[in-house]
Design brief:
The chain is built from eleven helices and eleven strands. By secondary structure, it is of the alpha+beta class. The chain has one domain: 3-Layer(aba) Sandwich (Beta-lactamase), CATH 3.40.710.10. The strands form three sheets. The protein has a seven-stranded mixed beta sheet, sandwiched between helices. Strands 4-7 form a two-stranded antiparallel sheet. A hairpin with a 4-residue loop joins strand 2 and strand 3. Helix 2 runs parallel beside helix 9, helix 5 packs across helix 7 and helix 5 runs antiparallel to helix 10.
Protein backbone atom coordinates (compact mmCIF):
# COMPACT_ATOMS: atom_id res chain seq x y z
CA UNK A 1 0.00 0.00 0.00
CA UNK A 2 2.80 2.40 0.89
CA UNK A 3 4.49 1.97 -2.48
CA UNK A 4 1.22 2.70 -4.30
CA UNK A 5 0.63 5.89 -2.36
CA UNK A 6 4.25 6.92 -2.74
CA UNK A 7 3.69 7.03 -6.48
CA UNK A 8 0.33 8.75 -6.18
CA UNK A 9 1.67 11.58 -4.07
CA UNK A 10 5.11 12.00 -5.63
CA UNK A 11 4.39 15.54 -6.75
CA UNK A 12 3.11 16.53 -3.33
CA UNK A 13 6.08 14.90 -1.67
CA UNK A 14 8.40 17.04 -3.76
CA UNK A 15 6.64 20.17 -2.55
CA UNK A 16 6.10 19.34 1.10
CA UNK A 17 8.34 16.35 1.89
CA UNK A 18 5.73 15.40 4.50
CA UNK A 19 2.93 13.65 2.68
CA UNK A 20 2.14 9.97 3.23
CA UNK A 21 -0.97 7.77 3.04
CA UNK A 22 -1.53 8.48 6.71
CA UNK A 23 -2.04 12.23 6.30
CA UNK A 24 -4.14 12.40 3.11
CA UNK A 25 -7.92 12.26 3.17
CA UNK A 26 -9.72 11.96 -0.16
CA UNK A 27 -13.03 13.66 0.64
CA UNK A 28 -15.81 12.38 -1.61
CA UNK A 29 -18.34 14.44 0.33
CA UNK A 30 -17.17 17.51 -1.59
CA UNK A 31 -18.39 16.19 -4.95
CA UNK A 32 -21.87 17.67 -4.61
CA UNK A 33 -20.49 21.22 -4.49
CA UNK A 34 -19.07 20.79 -7.99
CA UNK A 35 -22.10 18.89 -9.27
CA UNK A 36 -24.49 21.61 -8.14
CA UNK A 37 -22.58 24.16 -10.19
CA UNK A 38 -22.22 21.88 -13.21
CA UNK A 39 -18.42 21.97 -13.22
CA UNK A 40 -15.55 19.54 -12.87
CA UNK A 41 -12.63 20.46 -10.69
CA UNK A 42 -10.37 19.78 -7.77
CA UNK A 43 -9.87 21.16 -4.29
CA UNK A 44 -7.00 20.67 -1.89
CA UNK A 45 -6.58 21.85 1.71
CA UNK A 46 -3.45 21.53 3.83
CA UNK A 47 -3.51 21.93 7.61
CA UNK A 48 -0.05 23.18 8.44
CA UNK A 49 -0.42 22.33 12.12
CA UNK A 50 -1.37 18.68 11.72
CA UNK A 51 0.20 18.06 8.30
CA UNK A 52 -3.16 16.74 7.08
CA UNK A 53 -4.29 17.03 3.45
CA UNK A 54 -7.94 17.01 2.41
CA UNK A 55 -8.32 16.52 -1.35
CA UNK A 56 -11.18 16.25 -3.82
CA UNK A 57 -10.42 14.66 -7.20
CA UNK A 58 -6.88 13.59 -6.51
CA UNK A 59 -6.09 12.66 -10.12
CA UNK A 60 -6.81 16.21 -11.26
CA UNK A 61 -4.97 17.65 -8.24
CA UNK A 62 -1.87 15.58 -8.81
CA UNK A 63 -1.54 14.87 -12.52
CA UNK A 64 -3.36 17.55 -14.51
CA UNK A 65 -1.50 20.74 -15.38
CA UNK A 66 -3.18 23.89 -16.65
CA UNK A 67 -2.30 27.43 -17.61
CA UNK A 68 -1.82 29.46 -14.42
CA UNK A 69 -3.67 32.47 -15.87
CA UNK A 70 -3.72 35.32 -13.37
CA UNK A 71 -2.46 33.22 -10.47
CA UNK A 72 0.87 33.91 -12.17
CA UNK A 73 0.56 37.46 -10.85
CA UNK A 74 1.96 36.04 -7.60
CA UNK A 75 5.23 35.15 -9.33
CA UNK A 76 5.17 38.20 -11.60
CA UNK A 77 4.87 40.38 -8.48
CA UNK A 78 7.67 38.58 -6.66
CA UNK A 79 10.06 38.86 -9.59
CA UNK A 80 9.04 42.44 -10.29
CA UNK A 81 9.71 43.57 -6.72
CA UNK A 82 12.91 41.54 -6.37
CA UNK A 83 14.37 43.02 -9.55
CA UNK A 84 13.20 46.57 -8.83
CA UNK A 85 10.79 46.70 -11.77
CA UNK A 86 8.10 47.14 -9.12
CA UNK A 87 9.26 49.54 -6.41
CA UNK A 88 6.51 48.64 -3.94
CA UNK A 89 2.77 47.96 -3.88
CA UNK A 90 2.02 51.66 -4.42
CA UNK A 91 3.96 51.91 -7.69
CA UNK A 92 1.76 53.28 -10.48
CA UNK A 93 1.89 52.22 -14.11
CA UNK A 94 -0.07 54.62 -16.26
CA UNK A 95 -2.91 53.31 -18.39
CA UNK A 96 -1.96 53.16 -22.07
CA UNK A 97 -5.40 54.36 -23.13
CA UNK A 98 -6.37 51.08 -24.81
CA UNK A 99 -9.84 49.79 -23.90
CA UNK A 100 -9.55 46.02 -24.03
CA UNK A 101 -12.38 43.48 -24.38
CA UNK A 102 -12.98 41.19 -21.45
CA UNK A 103 -14.65 38.02 -22.76
CA UNK A 104 -15.48 36.48 -19.37
CA UNK A 105 -17.29 38.67 -16.86
CA UNK A 106 -17.96 42.41 -16.67
CA UNK A 107 -16.18 45.15 -18.56
CA UNK A 108 -12.60 46.14 -17.97
CA UNK A 109 -13.56 49.52 -16.51
CA UNK A 110 -11.55 48.79 -13.37
CA UNK A 111 -8.46 48.34 -15.58
CA UNK A 112 -8.90 51.44 -17.71
CA UNK A 113 -7.05 53.87 -15.47
CA UNK A 114 -3.67 54.41 -13.86
CA UNK A 115 -3.21 51.62 -11.31
CA UNK A 116 -0.95 50.87 -8.40
CA UNK A 117 0.54 47.40 -8.12
CA UNK A 118 -1.86 46.60 -5.27
CA UNK A 119 -4.88 47.73 -7.28
CA UNK A 120 -3.72 45.80 -10.33
CA UNK A 121 -3.22 42.64 -8.25
CA UNK A 122 -6.62 42.79 -6.58
CA UNK A 123 -8.41 43.72 -9.82
CA UNK A 124 -6.36 41.16 -11.74
CA UNK A 125 -5.44 43.78 -14.32
CA UNK A 126 -3.68 41.93 -17.11
CA UNK A 127 -2.22 44.98 -18.93
CA UNK A 128 -0.40 46.18 -15.80
CA UNK A 129 1.31 42.83 -15.34
CA UNK A 130 2.06 42.45 -19.02
CA UNK A 131 4.00 45.69 -18.78
CA UNK A 132 5.78 44.41 -15.65
CA UNK A 133 6.75 41.24 -17.52
CA UNK A 134 8.12 43.25 -20.45
CA UNK A 135 10.20 45.33 -18.04
CA UNK A 136 11.51 42.16 -16.37
CA UNK A 137 12.47 40.61 -19.71
CA UNK A 138 12.39 37.05 -20.96
CA UNK A 139 15.84 35.95 -19.76
CA UNK A 140 15.33 37.23 -16.21
CA UNK A 141 11.84 35.77 -16.02
CA UNK A 142 13.16 32.42 -17.25
CA UNK A 143 15.85 32.50 -14.54
CA UNK A 144 13.20 32.84 -11.85
CA UNK A 145 10.92 30.16 -13.33
CA UNK A 146 13.89 27.81 -13.21
CA UNK A 147 14.79 28.87 -9.67
CA UNK A 148 11.24 28.30 -8.45
CA UNK A 149 10.80 25.12 -10.52
CA UNK A 150 7.49 26.68 -11.47
CA UNK A 151 5.25 24.26 -13.37
CA UNK A 152 6.61 23.31 -16.78
CA UNK A 153 9.05 26.25 -16.44
CA UNK A 154 9.53 27.07 -20.12
CA UNK A 155 8.71 30.36 -21.79
CA UNK A 156 8.04 29.34 -25.38
CA UNK A 157 5.94 32.34 -26.43
CA UNK A 158 6.14 36.07 -25.75
CA UNK A 159 7.14 37.22 -22.27
CA UNK A 160 3.87 39.13 -21.84
CA UNK A 161 1.48 36.28 -22.68
CA UNK A 162 3.15 32.95 -21.83
CA UNK A 163 1.10 32.42 -18.65
CA UNK A 164 -2.15 33.05 -20.56
CA UNK A 165 -1.83 31.00 -23.76
CA UNK A 166 -1.52 27.40 -22.48
CA UNK A 167 2.23 27.20 -23.18
CA UNK A 168 3.11 27.32 -19.47
CA UNK A 169 1.25 24.90 -17.22
CA UNK A 170 1.16 24.07 -13.52
CA UNK A 171 -0.60 21.51 -11.32
CA UNK A 172 -2.82 22.24 -8.34
CA UNK A 173 -0.36 20.70 -5.87
CA UNK A 174 2.43 22.91 -7.27
CA UNK A 175 0.22 26.00 -6.87
CA UNK A 176 -0.42 25.06 -3.24
CA UNK A 177 3.26 24.45 -2.62
CA UNK A 178 4.13 27.91 -3.93
CA UNK A 179 1.75 29.78 -1.61
CA UNK A 180 2.78 27.68 1.39
CA UNK A 181 6.42 28.60 0.85
CA UNK A 182 5.43 32.23 0.28
CA UNK A 183 3.54 32.36 3.57
CA UNK A 184 6.61 31.20 5.49
CA UNK A 185 9.06 33.36 3.48
CA UNK A 186 10.70 30.22 2.12
CA UNK A 187 10.91 31.27 -1.53
CA UNK A 188 14.26 32.41 -2.97
CA UNK A 189 13.40 36.10 -2.62
CA UNK A 190 14.16 38.72 -0.01
CA UNK A 191 11.81 38.78 2.97
CA UNK A 192 10.58 42.26 2.02
CA UNK A 193 9.59 41.00 -1.42
CA UNK A 194 7.56 38.15 0.01
CA UNK A 195 5.94 40.31 2.69
CA UNK A 196 4.65 42.77 0.09
CA UNK A 197 3.08 40.02 -2.00
CA UNK A 198 1.53 38.37 1.06
CA UNK A 199 0.04 41.72 2.03
CA UNK A 200 -1.67 42.30 -1.31
CA UNK A 201 -3.01 38.74 -1.36
CA UNK A 202 -5.20 39.42 1.69
CA UNK A 203 -8.74 39.91 0.39
CA UNK A 204 -10.79 39.62 3.60
CA UNK A 205 -9.86 40.15 7.23
CA UNK A 206 -12.12 40.29 10.27
CA UNK A 207 -12.30 39.07 13.86
CA UNK A 208 -12.91 35.48 12.78
CA UNK A 209 -10.52 34.90 9.89
CA UNK A 210 -8.09 36.21 7.32
CA UNK A 211 -8.63 35.06 3.74
CA UNK A 212 -5.80 35.58 1.24
CA UNK A 213 -5.95 34.39 -2.34
CA UNK A 214 -5.35 35.04 -6.01
CA UNK A 215 -7.81 34.12 -8.71
CA UNK A 216 -7.08 33.20 -12.29
CA UNK A 217 -9.27 32.68 -15.34
CA UNK A 218 -8.31 31.36 -18.75
CA UNK A 219 -9.45 29.43 -21.79
CA UNK A 220 -8.26 25.85 -22.23
CA UNK A 221 -7.32 24.22 -25.53
CA UNK A 222 -10.73 22.48 -25.55
CA UNK A 223 -12.49 25.85 -25.38
CA UNK A 224 -13.65 25.45 -21.79
CA UNK A 225 -13.15 28.13 -19.17
CA UNK A 226 -10.75 27.37 -16.29
CA UNK A 227 -10.87 29.21 -12.98
CA UNK A 228 -8.29 29.03 -10.18
CA UNK A 229 -8.30 30.25 -6.60
CA UNK A 230 -5.14 29.64 -4.55
CA UNK A 231 -4.16 30.99 -1.15
CA UNK A 232 -4.70 30.46 2.56
CA UNK A 233 -7.26 30.92 5.29
CA UNK A 234 -5.95 31.85 8.72
CA UNK A 235 -7.89 31.47 11.97
CA UNK A 236 -6.38 32.04 15.40
CA UNK A 237 -3.07 32.65 13.59
CA UNK A 238 -3.17 29.11 12.25
CA UNK A 239 -2.81 28.86 8.44
CA UNK A 240 -4.54 26.38 6.16
CA UNK A 241 -3.47 26.43 2.51
CA UNK A 242 -5.91 25.74 -0.30
CA UNK A 243 -6.18 25.49 -4.04
CA UNK A 244 -9.24 25.04 -6.21
CA UNK A 245 -9.64 24.86 -9.95
CA UNK A 246 -12.88 24.38 -11.82
CA UNK A 247 -13.67 23.90 -15.49
CA UNK A 248 -16.88 24.55 -17.38
CA UNK A 249 -18.36 25.59 -20.69
CA UNK A 250 -17.92 29.28 -21.58
CA UNK A 251 -21.65 29.91 -21.38
CA UNK A 252 -21.68 28.79 -17.74
CA UNK A 253 -19.85 31.98 -16.68
CA UNK A 254 -18.07 30.15 -13.89
CA UNK A 255 -16.21 33.28 -12.81
CA UNK A 256 -19.47 34.51 -11.30
CA UNK A 257 -19.61 31.76 -8.68
CA UNK A 258 -16.04 30.54 -8.12
CA UNK A 259 -15.62 32.46 -4.85
CA UNK A 260 -19.05 31.33 -3.65
CA UNK A 261 -18.04 27.73 -4.38
CA UNK A 262 -14.75 28.10 -2.53
CA UNK A 263 -16.44 29.61 0.51
CA UNK A 264 -19.08 26.87 0.56
CA UNK A 265 -16.35 24.25 0.67
CA UNK A 266 -14.38 26.13 3.34
CA UNK A 267 -17.50 26.47 5.49
CA UNK A 268 -18.15 22.75 5.13
CA UNK A 269 -14.62 22.26 6.44
CA UNK A 270 -15.39 24.46 9.46
CA UNK A 271 -13.90 27.79 8.35
CA UNK A 272 -15.09 31.40 8.08
CA UNK A 273 -17.48 31.26 11.03
CA UNK A 274 -15.11 31.65 13.98
CA UNK A 275 -15.33 28.01 15.02
CA UNK A 276 -11.75 26.81 14.37
Amino acid sequence: MRSIFSGIFLAILVVFSACSPNNVKVDKDLQHFFDEKGVVGTFGLYDNGSGQFTIHNIARFRDSAYLPASTFKIVNSLVGIETGRIVNEKMIIKWDGVVRPFPMGDSTKSWNKDLTMEEAFKRSAVPYYQEVARRIGKDTMQFWLDSLKYGTKKIVSKVDVFWLDNTLKITADEEMGLVKKLYFNQLPFQKRTQEIVKKVMVQEENANYKLAYKTGTGTLENGNTLCWIVGWVEENRHPFFFVMNIEGKPAANITSFRLELLKSILKQQGFLEGKR
